[in-house]
Amino acid sequence: MKKRIAIACDDIGFERKEALKDYLINIKGYDVVYDPVKEPKDGKNTFAKLADEMAEAIQRDKCRLGVYVCGTGIGFTMQANKHWGIRATAVTNPYSAKRARLSNNVQIIGLGMRVNGLPYHEMILDAFLDEEFDFENARENSKKNLLEAKADDNRLLNKPDFISWNMGFEEDSKE
Fold first, then answer.
1. Active-site residue, selected from the candidate residues 6, 63, 69, 70
2. Pick from 161, 144, 135, 168: which is nearest to 56 by CA?
3. Which of 63, 81, 154, 174 has the lowest CB atom count within 10 Å?
């Protein structure tokens, strides 16, 4: 099965998003299933709407990962984290991207156009994408924290009826 991913940007991150989309498709082998910003004006003042849409695409299991490019990646990821089951963070270096995935099973990363250049963003994507969270070998503390995050989401957020997978809080069943 081809790997699926969502990507979006604001008007500032448009050119970088296009370059990273090409990288995701042609180098990393991903199918981009959500890319609503076709020209810079489509991304102007839309980060909250786009975060909501990307979160829902992940909740509906259209893809399990997403990337957003803007000035810093901060606002978008803050908005995405308001959704049940979503874990998003802005990252500025490969190590943080790798740990976001391996320690927290993060689904969405935000990248800053004003923070890093294209080659470094590609390194960040590699670190984020190349080693997925592995429940069998993950640290026990990471697995416990994911279950605590799920309990927090259940307590603090509304779980939509359309959630169609376990959102990475637990291992997928091996049926």
1. 70
2. 161
3. 174
